Amino acid sequence: MEGAVRVQILSQMGISEVPSQYIQPPKNRPGSVTENIADLSCKHVPAVDLSSEKESVLPAIREACRDWGAFHVINHGVPTKLLDDLRRACFSFFNDFPMEDKLKYACNPNFAASEGYGSRLLVSSENETVLDWRDYFDHHTLPLSRRNPSAWPHFPPEYRELMANYSDEMKALVQRLLALMSESLGLKASCIEDAVREFYQNITASYYPPCPRPDLTLGLQSHSDIGAITLLIQDNVGGLQVLKDGEWLLVDPLPNAILVLVADQTEIITNGQYKTCVHRAVTNASKARLSIATFHDPAKTVRISPVSDLVSKSSPPLYSSVLYRYYLSSWYSNAPEGKRNLDKLLLDTSK
Predict the structure, then answer these.
(1) How would you class 7 by CB atoms within 10 Å of its CB: exposed for 0-12, middle for 13-18, buried for 19 or more?
(2) What is the distance between the alpha carbons of residues 40 and 247, in angstroms, rounded to a whole number?
(3) Tally of CB atoms within 10 A around 104
(4) Which of 138, 210, 282, 330 is the most buried (most CB within 10 A)?
């Protein structure tokens, strides 16, 4: 059982200041960003309508992946009722049940990112000094050999069935998206998925309680996702920010949309043509917030490198190949901060 204090408990205590371990260094603090959130609201993260003709979908995806590393998808085929029901069930788990019941599903403190209910993702990192203002539940969902619904909450009663159904829907959508992303680069539809191989999927429901000092804290520190592609749904509170041209912009929740985040391995596979999305979460003082992220990673034994069709004499490889096991280990031992783990693989192309 994880020993860290749950952030929700701190919030419910009615404290006026946050403990020192949650205070970000000055360079990382959101500061005035949350004071006038509407001015920095980002209504321009691209939205791609998947019901449109492919002739318009492919260039829209290509532009979004090159310029943003993120885009919303609408008319994506995932039932709206499933999205709403899962958000409701996850919020209920965090908000409506006694802490003693939730702690029965606590993470193992001896393993980073172990399945279960936690507050401290990088439990094994010696470099971690500042904690996120967040509680979460991490589910191991794919391959099916990793899926063990008995390790997920049994309350509310529909929770496990909803999570399993959502996992399957996300896999189908990711396969469709990666095919479109491949085709948008002139590659065969299966190219990126073939490079990733079998998906290792985790679904993380994150709960951000109200914070007395949102100017000093982050719900989730700046990072790019480690795997191939992430699908995210938010509630209507909002708090996700993306880094665009050196500015942090708040991503407005788009009703019934799913946000797509390009992750590190896809930047490597596409030889830098598609950019990973650096993002973070800010806190607020009045409302709890929920988001659900579905990560799709390669297996640890897969070696990732730029695909040969995107490498030539005029376009040399930008990244060295890497065994995903080592990339994963580096991410957890160094802790995420922006794209620093990905940047370590950059090759010197000036020679």
Answers:
(1) buried
(2) 9
(3) 11
(4) 282
Residue 263 CA to residue 225 CA, distance in Å, equals 5
Contact of 241 with 250, CB cutoff 8 Å: yes
End-to-end Cα distance, the chain: 52
pLDDT digits (tens, 9 = 90+) for 15-24: 999 999 999 9
CB atoms within 10 A of CB 246: 5
313: DSSP letter:
S
Q: pLDDT digits over 242-265, tens only?
A: 999 999 999 989 989 999 999 999
CB 94, CB 84: distance < 8 Å:
no
In this structure, what DSSP letter does residue 127 have?
Answer: T
Any idea which fold 19-25+37-345 has?
Jelly Rolls (2.60.120)
Nearest-angstrom CA–CA distance, 267 and 275: 5
Sites in the chain below the pLDDT cut of 70: 1-4, 31-43, 109, 112-113, 122-128, 335-338, 349-351
Does an H or E element contain 327, and which?
Answer: helix 324-334
Strand residues in 169-237 grouped as ranges (E): 200-208, 220-224, 229-234
* C-alpha to C-alpha distance for 94 and 115, rounded to whole angstroms: 16
Listed in sequence order, the residues at least 6 apart from 318 whose beta carbon sits closer than 8 Å to its beta carbon are 271, 272, 306, 346, 347, 349
